[in-house]
Amino acid sequence: MQPTATVLVYSDDANTREQVRLAAGRRPAADVPPVEFLECATLPAVLSALDKGGIDVCVLDGETAPAGGMGVCRQIKDEIFDCPPVLLLIGRPQDAWLATWSRADAAVTLPVDPVGFADALASVLRQRLSVGA
Q1: Could you read off the pLDDT of 7-57 as tens digits, one per residue?
Q2: Considering Cα of 95, then 116, then 33, then 128, what sign does the dihedral take?
Q3: What string of DSSP letters covers 78-104?
Q4: Beta partners for 89?
Q5: Region label for 71, one of left (φ > 0), alpha (ψ between -120 and 50) or beta (otherwise)
Q6: Sheet arrangement for strand 5-10
Q7: pLDDT band at 130 (very low <50, low <70, confident <90, very high)
Q8: Which of 11, 71, 75, 133: CA 20 to 30 A from 92?
Q9: Could you tell me if 49 and 80 are in contact, meaning their C-beta atoms sit under 8 angstroms apart?
Q10: In sequence order, which residues have a C-beta less than 8 Å from that of residue 128 and are 6 or more positions away?
């Protein structure tokens, strides 16, 4: 198992980024590696980080402005070779169809539920690690 997994967190709201970090903790599940977070508040920062590589999972806030996480998800799925799996934060359960449109690998609602978020993050990490193995 690799020593750590890098999780990119995109949100223009520092409180949302903090909720993600706190909900995931150091290790979202026993069978996945510990996580390190790379926080981004702008689309250019996200694209730059993905171009550099080394990102295992992206957590994108669908409520971010001006470039929302759903549109960013669709863009990176189209433009980034071997795009990491995306966990999308959505405003309400009824937005799940938009998460599907954006090609997100998983979606959870805001505010972040620690147990549900940790389970979803661990699931997408497992997906990424099984592909990379």
Answers
A1: 999 999 999 999 999 999 999 999 999 999 999 999 999 999 999 999 999
A2: negative
A3: HHSTTPPPEEEEESSGGGHHHHHHTT-
A4: 61, 108
A5: alpha
A6: 35-40, 5-10, 57-61, 86-90, 106-109
A7: confident
A8: 75
A9: no
A10: 5, 56, 57, 84, 85
Cα 20-13-100 angle, rounded to 5 deg: 65
Q: Please name every residue paired with 87 in a beta bridge, in sequence order, or none if there are none.
A: 59, 106
Total-model pTM = 0.94
- Residue with token string 């995306």: 86
Q: Is the CB of residue 109 less than 8 Å from the CB of residue 90?
A: yes
H-helix segments, the chain: 14-24, 43-52, 69-79, 96-101, 114-132
Taking CA atoms, 91 is separated from 60, 68, 88, 102, in Å, by 12, 11, 10, 15
